[in-house]
Amino acid sequence: MSGENTMQRASSKQARLIRYALSAAIAAALAPGAVLAQESAAQQPAAPAAATADGKESATTLDAIVVSGTARFKGLRKRDASFSITTASLEQIQEAVPLSTADALKVVPGVWAESAGGSTGANIFVRGMPSEGDAPFVTVQMDGAPLYPPPTLSFLENSTLFRMDDTVERMEVLRGGPSPIFSNGQPGATVNFIQKKGGEEPAGSVRIGLGSDNFRRVDLFNSGKLGEGWYYSVGGFYRVTDGVRDTQFPADKGGQLSATLTHSWDSGEVTVYARHTNDKNAFFTPIPLLSRNNGSSLSSFPGLDAQTGTLLGNDFRHVDIPTGPGTRIRRDLAEGRGINLDVFGASMDFYVGDWTISDRINYVSGSAPTNGLFTGASPRRMADYIAGFGSAGTATYVNGGGAVDPNQQVLTAGFWVVDKELESFTNDLRFSRDLFEGNTFTAGVYYARYSSKDTWYLGNNMLLTAQNNARRIDLRLADGRQVTRDGFVGTSFFSLRGDYDGQNTAVFLADEWQINERLRLDGGVRYEWQQVDGTVHDTATVDLDGNPNTLYDNATSISLPTSRRIDQNDHHFSWTLGLNYKLNDTSSVFARANSGYKLPAFDNLRDGNTKTQEIDQYELGFKSGNNVYDLYLTAFYNKFTNSPFQAFLDDGTNFTTVGDSRAYGVEVEGAVRPIGGLELTLTGIWLDAQYENYREFTGNQVMRQPKQQFRFTPSYYWTLPFGDLKIFATYSRIGDRYADLANTQKLPSYDTLDIGANLHVGENWEFAFTGSNVTNELGLTEGNVRVPGAATGGVFMGRPIAGRSYLFSAAYRW
């Protein structure tokens, strides 16, 4: 990314949206008696970063400045950091050809993102840390403040709440390290997106994107100076596309508007920001595939293309779902797993006497619904399905088309509805001072208050044709029983009305000590209290119409007026200790130990899992680099206690268990620039993760995480008379995984190839072309954990990655 773009700063066009955060920031900054002095991260002196082969500043060099994981937010060179952190500029993120926010994490060794579900709703795993899905060990931050304090609730993970656009300056991803001490105490990965802010010179861009699947997108950004010490930025995007799979309706549609306002003076800096996102995203789940050799060889199921096909379609895009006697709701599949979210925040850095005061405030409010099709058992012939009722029957299409062929492959899939209304407030306040030369002490307090109002209707199974854009089927038996209503063979098997509130307060102490020019020590302790209370309504199973011959509603789960209370208090202690030793001017080693935790969240407590997960981690790393190469090697070991598992099985059972695990492995990030404009980069991980004390699953590989994965990217840069050109390609290898605890559903290894080129013309124009999965590889990121056991009958239910797609963009910058 060019230096001009990196220095872009912020401004607000949404004064109405930022008024709340601005008033809070100014009130704190102008407190009576305060003596203020500025120590902004942006103004800290930093050695120039080593240049890559293309002559640009590299975010992977040892001299790159990071702020995540540091006690004072002021910034630290990567060569001095005693922890593993990956950084990427906006341009580097775009060159990785990400299909979503979660997919951008593929540039981070040790992180595995299952992003085949579409633009949102990913499952993200870190260093063998066990989970059933979502992303319990990944926190997404904006400018150092978490977007939602619990990293995962059922049907919601943090990456769903964030959309990348040209207002992002860079991404920093911290794994392990000191993260159990700061912010929300995430022991896994903290993904911090740093926004652009306004500067002395006006800067901006207009980007137009066109691509496969009728992809159309526009990004806008503008920043500059409002007055002496006042800077602004404003930007956003709007995008519409038919989607990587043919849904027959826009799979992704929506946009975002962001703004920042910065005030700098001789003694401090305050930035306030606001963001509004309204985006709708179709959600893709496992589909049937043909399987051989226990899933080792896969191909498309007849009539359902694995690369471009989906069961979703207009036939059941809009449906009415019964929720109780005489009550229904209407839902739209195009709502998918989108968000309608407002974010307000502020960051403040200033002095009071000898103390440096830093504060990060964030307020989030909005909705994050799920309207998705969840598949279950493998398809079978229509005739066999009818025979299962012990009677002859007549099957017809719901929306016309006559009788269904007895040999037509059919399956049942549920239209699951989950409504979530979210609200959260976080504040991370820190006080730092130098105790003596080379030693800095920090004391801080973290406070979070958050809520989620949930309404769920899981189940609502439909009888569908197993084909692209499936069609609903009505079935009436010869003995007078009616199996379906408008294609629905069932109603909700799990209805939920819940209203949860949580509050976390933590105090932490940290100390950083540069003992001499070679040795740097840091350590910290944290103590946290959590209080969770909520109301979960009781449920009952009823026959909605009282007619036993209408099979489709004979067992309907409904919410009752009565309820039960959730009320639990937890507390825990964590610590970290790390050292970094400089071997010479180009190399250093680090060691780190920490003990962290994950307190039970709303869904854990609802299901009776009240135990706190305890996590011990150890790291040993080597860093070396100059203008020819960069190398980062990190060996790690983690140990988990009280790790819960929960899944809603296809028969409606809510399966839960708890146990332990351990994992160890090695991460690598490297780049070599041997000649001219050639650069060769490699990132990857080797991992061994197993369950321990986990019922009959003890000794099994931790589900859904590959033992090895790596990405190799060669690139070449030319300086041309009219500008510069860079071409690149990325080969990725994803190893074998298992979809289930029992290690019976094998997810085979696969390889992908991405390509791209960037052309800069003059001072203003930029053209980019990228291709994703250009070899059209059939790879799976997920099986079907809701159906225990391996593939049966030669059919495997899995979620394939998207087929090949291309994107072209043109940008004008000033």
Automatic annotation (TrEMBL):
Record carries keyword Cell membrane: no
Entry keyword annotation includes NAD: no
Principal location class: membrane
Signal peptide boundaries: 1-37
Topology versus the membrane: Multi-pass membrane protein
Keywords: Cell outer membrane, Ion transport, Iron, Iron transport, Membrane, Receptor, Signal, TonB box, Transmembrane, Transmembrane beta strand, Transport
Domain TonB-dependent receptor plug residues, every copy: 78-189
InterPro entries: Beta-barrel_TonB (IPR000531), Beta-barrel_TonB_sf (IPR036942), Plug_dom (IPR012910), Plug_dom_sf (IPR037066), TonB-dep_rcpt-like (IPR039426)
Family, per entry: Belongs to the TonB-dependent receptor family.
UniProt cross-references to PANTHER family, sorted A to Z: CATECHOLATE SIDEROPHORE RECEPTOR FIU (PTHR32552:SF89), FERRICHROME IRON RECEPTOR-RELATED (PTHR32552)
Name assigned to this protein: TonB-dependent receptor
Lineage: Bacteria, Pseudomonadati, Pseudomonadota, Gammaproteobacteria, Lysobacterales
